[in-house]
């Protein structure tokens, strides 16, 4: 009975896994890097409130 329970647990973990091998891990890393770069570009292109941003002051 214990073996069956452990088997189901392992299957569940495997079913929900994002990666199965090193190639999957590399691909996931590339996708995460692209998302991060896109988010960085969006933040860079946002307008900024000059009263909040001290580096935009002309002092």
Which SSEs are present, and which pair or pack?
Layout: H1 2-16, H2 22-44
What does this molecule look like?
The chain has 59 residues and is mainly α. The protein has a domain of 30 residues. It is built from two helices and no strands. The protein is rod-shaped.
Give the key terms.
Staphylococcal protein; 2 helices; mainly alpha
Radius of gyration: 23 Å
Regarding quaternary structure, what we see is single chain
Number of helices: 2
Helix and strand element order: HH
Roughly what percent helix?
A: 55-70%
- The structure class reads mainly alpha
Average of pLDDT? 75
Number of strands: 0
The stretches of 5 or more residues where confidence is low (pLDDT under 50) are none
The geometry reads as: rod-shaped
Region (Disordered): 34-59
Protein name: Staphylococcal protein
Give a summary of the structure in a few sentences.
The protein is an all-alpha fold. It contains 2 helices and no strands.
């Amino acid at each position: 009975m214990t073996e069956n329970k452990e088997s189901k647990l392992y299957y569940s973990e495997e079913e929900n896994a994002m990666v199965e091998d090193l190639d999957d891990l590399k691909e996931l890393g590339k996708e995460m890097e692209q998302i991060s770069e896109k988010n960085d570009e969006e933040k860079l292109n946002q307008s900024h409130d000059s009263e909040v941003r001290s580096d935009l002051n002309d002092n």
